[in-house]
């Protein structure tokens, strides 16, 4: 639950820093989600990014917004993020 909230915060800070209008954040486009996750890939574990994504999806559903992100595309993004995870997090 805490990770979900942190993910929402990180996503909103990301969008605010790029001056992305609120109406472009919900529903999140696959392109914006890809850009967000890519920007986090070298700093966060892939499991953290998966939890962030789950939190964003739950937030969309809670607010009645469509989740238009393709499952296969999302898996590819998260798999790529796993490959870029910080070396200190890899066993």
Describe this structure in words.
Helix 2 packs parallel to helix 4. The longest helix has 17 residues. With 91 residues, this protein is an all-alpha fold. The protein is 63% helix and 0% strand.
Structural key phrases:
91 residues, mainly alpha, 4 helices, 63% helix, 0% strand, globular
Tell me briefly what this model is:
This protein is an all-alpha fold and 91 residues long.
Please tell me how large the radius of gyration is.
13 Å
Shape: globular
The fraction of residues assigned to DSSP E strands is under 5%
Q: What structural category characterises the helix and strand content?
A: mainly alpha
- H/E element string? HHHH
**N- and C-termini, Cα separation:** 26 Å
Helix content: 55-70%
Oligomer: single chain
Q: Report the average pLDDT across residues.
A: 86
Number of helices: 4
Q: Regions with pLDDT < 50 over 5+ consecutive residues?
A: none
Characterize the biggest β-sheet: none
What is the number of E strands? Answer: 0
Helix/strand layout:
Layout: H1 2-17, H2 30-40, H3 46-62, H4 71-83
Helix pairs in contact: 1-3, 2-4, 3-4
